[in-house]
Amino acid sequence: MANESRPCPCGIGDRFDYEGCGQEVQVEHIKAYVCKPPASTDKAVIVIHDIFGWQLPNTRYMADMLAANGYIATCPDFFAGREAWKPSGDWSKFDDWLKTRDARKINKETDAVLKYLKEQCGAKKLGVIGFCWGGIAVRHLMMTYPELKAGVSLCGLIKDSDDVSNLLNPTFFIFAEKDDFIPLHQVTLLEQKLKKNCKVDFEVKIYPGQTHGFVHRRREDINPKDKLYIEEGRKDMINWLNKYI
């Protein structure tokens, strides 16, 4: 089930036997997974998938977790029907594949999902979370859509040139200490820029000993000591959303 040799470890511990509690719906030109809480609510969270797409059991598990905490959770297909990356794919072709899936060019899909949540689900208080590729998307959306009152970016790749000082609402950044894809000096630079220029609440947190994508996979299957940090990351995410939505 787990394969430590994968170039991108987001899929480690995939819950292949996890079927989800929600349902798939059509939202204009895209499909989406939606899970609603037992009690009626006007709070909703958009869940943005990683490179493995909207059908990854891990990500649907996180959407269901949000629903269990009182949110309408939807995980749309932000690839808009284009094929998600497969762990078995040819990684020499990954960069070319990624060029056609820009995490900062998802406004059309976001507009459709926001309309759906407001008109079909009665949502009035909105937030967004995203994993890895989706973490980049969260940063973009939190600088673009003022109706998103809280954002959580989990292991979103950053560049030295990235500037997210123009965040419109509170945003929480989750990083892993031993992330092979996100050097800690980039995280430090990101935090310095936020402290200097950002005008809304934010938090940058690095979780000791963790690797890329740790929050939305069952890393404890491989190393039990990581379970505490996985649970801490999930709790921190929920607390941030509860505080601002």
TrEMBL record:
Q: Does the keyword Cytoplasm apply?
A: yes
Segments forming domain Dienelactone hydrolase: 30-244
Q: Which Pfam families match?
A: DLH (PF01738)
Q: What is its main location?
A: cytoplasm
Q: Name one GO cellular component term.
A: cytosol
Q: Is Translocase among this UniProt entry's keywords? A: no
Tell me the protein family, please: Belongs to the dienelactone hydrolase family.
Q: What is this protein called?
A: Carboxymethylenebutenolidase homolog
Q: Which organism is it from?
A: Anhinga anhinga (Anhinga)
* Gene of this entry: Cmbl_2
